[in-house]
Amino acid sequence: MKPILVIGSSNTDMVIRVCNLPQPGQTVLGKNFQMFGGGKGANQAVAAQRAGGDVRFVAAVGSDDFGRAALETLSIEGIDTRYVQTLDGLSSGVAMIFVADSGENCIGVAPGANNALTPEYLHSHEQIFADISVLLVQLETPIETVAAAIELATQQGATCILNPAPATPVPDRVIEALFCITPNESEAEMLTGVTVTDEKSAAAAADELLQRGVKNVVITMGRNGALLRNASGSHRQTAESVNVVDTTAAGDTFNGVLATMLAKDRSMRDAIGIAVAAATQSVQIAGAIASIPHLGKL
Questions:
Q1: Catalytic residues
Q2: What is the number of structural domains in the chain?
Q3: pLDDT at res. 298
Q4: Is it the case that residue 297 has pLDDT exceeding 60?
């Protein structure tokens, strides 16, 4: 199997458990506090590696304790971190996460060094893209960097997946170059203007994205599974009903596992089924990287 290239963010997640998520202007007393390695890029790299992928990770961290700890965690996972930049004078990314008893969360991110990952760095290190099978990117780094990554990967014939999170407008030139885009309901609404509440509205949002040139749209819908839509039609993948502890990194688990399954030449339907099952496992465990399952040689 050829390498999977994940380009994205590395953060340290600071997590406070609360009974209910705070409303604007409200202070809530938390139950406990924990710190985990995180960031959408790092989470997805770990998920892809634990699913049996050969993962190459590109990111930027600060020369601080958070950055050093992140690199150590990724290296222990067996991920190739040679092209992760360590930048003096910048802090590593940090996320503050509230997790409610229901398992739902709200997140604020200080990107720090993540914002310093530039197109120029990618263009000056084009060997990063050599022999990759799949590129997986998100939107916690600058959109210009994401666009450059997709362009360089496409030149190598790689399969390009964009997880458009956090919800941010994405230019048509980026979307039309993609093999697959994987928004959740709110991200799909941001991209299309279609409010996603059920399978019918998810299909309508997916059709809007297909018209913009992407080959496959997968809208993730939490406990309701995921909807695949492409030129061949639709496939609804249901999710097992489980006790939800923490939804942090469920989407990242889905995307990392999806990338590895596609790198292993699994069909889209098979890949999505495995990815939904992995995400369902992850919501039963607290934390981001801590919750990502090991799938071995699936």
A1: 252
A2: 1
A3: 55
A4: no
* pLDDT value for 123: 97
Instruction: Return the number of other C-beta atoms located less than 10 Å from residue 222's C-beta.
Output: 18
Average pLDDT over residues 35-62: 95
What order of strands is seen across the sheet that includes strand 134-137? 55-58, 4-7, 134-137, 159-162, 180-181, 216-220, 226-230, 233-237
CATH number, domain at 227? 3.40.1190.20
How far apart are alpha carbons 162 and 154 in whole angstroms? 13
Query: Average pLDDT in the 257-264 region?
Result: 98
Q: Are the CB atoms for 37 and 69 separated by under 8 Å?
A: yes
Considering the entire predicted model, what is its pTM?
0.92
Structural domain boundaries enclosing 212:
4-291
Name the pLDDT band for 36 (thresholds 50, 70, 90). confident
